[in-house]
Amino acid sequence: MATQIKSTDAVPLPSNPGHKLRADAANAWERANVAAGLTPELTDSFRPVEVQERIFRERYVAGNHAGKPGFTSDVRTWNGVKYTRKAGTAAAAVPGTSNHGGGLAVDVRTSRNAATRPRPVVVFTGFNDVDRLNWLKAAKPHGWADDEGRSVNEPWHLTYYPARDQHKGQPSTPPTPKVCPTCGK
Predict the structure, then answer these.
(1) 168 lies in a domain?
(2) Which one of 19, 46, 157, 169 has the minimum C-beta count within 10 Å?
């Protein structure tokens, strides 16, 4: 369970205007994009607890309805009450436990449309999407992985793991090459 952060503690992602993450995750996200030479287009990032609650209530119904028509077998407990996920909806963490609320998770767009920005911005069409695999390979040393997304069959869900970040504290943009003032090299 990720420690939830306040909206004021989430920082903007220059590569994805309108999206925010915890500061270390945001820096690692930008570094990973530079390393990959690709920028996944996001549909979701940091979620305040109010948004987590809304999403959970849209996807889950109070009571244990597992095995009944219109429901999945996904039963979760929130505030002492069991909830069952509606069929045809994606899983959602119990409010207050989400890595999105901790500013450590993103969801990547999975289809291209007229509003999708051109390359190097990319979408992930599935687990074996070539851009996705290349991005994950480059992003791994920066702490980004799809473990959590794979566990719930969501190719769009990526999580930042600070302990795996081999470049923690490094700037998110490559340093400007130094030029010799006399020779220009």
Answers:
(1) no
(2) 169
